[in-house]
């Protein structure tokens, strides 16, 4: 079986590894990625959070999907995960849910946590603005280590700097740079943003796009403390490993909104050439300092992580669901959180069984 995977990010590379592990020498995999190297966009430029569901009190579906996927994720990438001893979620009085509503949402899914007295968590600029705090056992993914592990297992032909311009879902053809690659039994589009290419209008995902920035700073409270303010226009200070933390702001981290993939890629290229506007970083720092008891300045920023993101156009509840759409030989993946990857791979495998009329079994 010959398969093309469009997108050499986390989902695309994990898809390739799973297919090769299950199907062995009976499968040929080609990966097409628009970047100069694999795993170079959102896969290694994100908050490093291994979700258990605490981040999405308004989306029951996202919580359920996260819970269902975390054990498989830990089984494969456990060596790349750390667990901060002091991982706190604080519910702000001006959030979309109050503390009781938040705990009900977590209890409905049997999530485990400890409630802490507010005075035992001296991290907030205005403790009176915090309704309640819980301590959880979510993990921190060492993204660079995870990327190295994924690439060490990869057995595929890779085409980098290859922008796919068209897909023929009937004939199994991928075109990039004016060259057509033919003869694919299936094409899996695992890009994070351009996942409608080749899909008929009625099967396309309705999406909106943004560029997101996070400030990477030396961990003010050490690698064992993670702080997330819920649920609304607040901030997170989350360990990234290696003595560093990401500071993100719901208000200022998404610094550019786009309606099309072309516009998104044009703006991303400009950012990569000239950098993120300093005011974006200043806004993130100011927001963090205002909510948390910090005094971070521009000179404290060690690096800025920027990544393109896609979200459902009409999302009202901050959903981050993974999903697939199928049209003939084309399988389009809406990539969700990292921990949902194995569930998504399982969905793709079932479709591939139908396409190939063979059972994908371990060899």
Could you characterize what this model shows?
This protein is of the alpha+beta class and 363 residues long. Helices cover 26% and strands 31% of the residues. The strands form four sheets. Strands 5, 6, 7, 14, 15, 16, 17, 18 and 19 form a nine-stranded mixed sheet that branches. It has a six-stranded mixed sheet with strand order 9-2-1-13-21-20, with helices on one face. Strands 3-8-4 form a three-stranded antiparallel sheet. The longest helix is centred in the first third of the chain and has 18 residues, at 60-77. Mean pLDDT is 91; it is low at 359-363.
Summarize the structure.
Helices cover 26% and strands 31% of the residues. The chain is of the alpha+beta class and 363 residues long.
What do we call the CATH topology of the largest domain? Answer: FAD/NAD(P)-binding domain
Number of helices: 7
N-to-C span: 14 Å
Number of strands: 21
CATH architecture type of the largest domain: 3-Layer(bba) Sandwich
Strand and helix order: EHEEHEEHEEEHEEEEEEEEEEHHEEEH
CATH superfamily of the largest domain: FAD/NAD(P)-binding domain
């Amino acid at each position: 079986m010959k398969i093309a995977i469009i997108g050499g990010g986390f989902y695309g590379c994990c898809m390739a590894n799973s297919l090769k592990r299950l199907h062995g020498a009976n499968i040929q995999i080609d990966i097409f990625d628009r970047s100069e190297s694999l795993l170079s966009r959102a896969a290694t430029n994100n908050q490093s959070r291994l979700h258990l569901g605490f981040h999405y009190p308004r989306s029951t579906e996202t919580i359920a999907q996260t819970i269902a996927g975390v054990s498989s994720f830990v089984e494969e990438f456990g060596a790349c995960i750390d667990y901060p001893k002091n991982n706190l979620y604080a519910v702000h009085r001006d959030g979309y849910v109050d503390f009781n509503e938040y705990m009900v949402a977590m209890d409905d899914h049997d999530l485990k946590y400890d409630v802490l007295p507010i005075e035992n968590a001296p991290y907030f600029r205005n403790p009176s603005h915090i309704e309640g705090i819980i301590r959880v056992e979510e993990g921190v993914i060492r993204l660079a280590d995870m990327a190295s592990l994924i690439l060490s297992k990869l057995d595929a032909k890779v085409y980098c700097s290859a922008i796919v311009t068209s897909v023929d879902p009937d004939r199994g053809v991928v075109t990039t740079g004016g060259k057509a690659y033919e003869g694919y039994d299936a094409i899996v589009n695992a890009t994070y943003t351009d996942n409608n290419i080749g899909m008929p209008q009625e099967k396309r995902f309705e999406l909106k796009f943004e560029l997101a920035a996070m400030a990477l700073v030396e961990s003010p409270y050490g690698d064992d403390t993670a702080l997330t303010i819920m649920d609304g226009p607040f901030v997170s200070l989350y360990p990234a490993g290696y003595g560093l933390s990401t500071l993100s702001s719901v208000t200022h981290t998404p610094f550019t909104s786009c309606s099309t993939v072309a516009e998104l890629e044009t703006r991303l290229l400009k950012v990569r050439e000239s950098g993120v506007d300093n005011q974006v970083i200043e806004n993130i720092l100011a927001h963090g300092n205002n909510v948390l008891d910090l005094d971070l300045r521009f000179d404290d920023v060690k690096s800025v992580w920027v990544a393109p993101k896609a979200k459902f156009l009409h999302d009202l509840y901050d959903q981050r669901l993974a999903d697939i759409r199928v049209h003939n030989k084309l399988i389009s993946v809406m990539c969700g959180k990292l921990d949902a990857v194995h569930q998504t791979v399982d969905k793709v495998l079932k479709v591939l069984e139908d396409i190939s009329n063979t059972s994908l079994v371990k060899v």
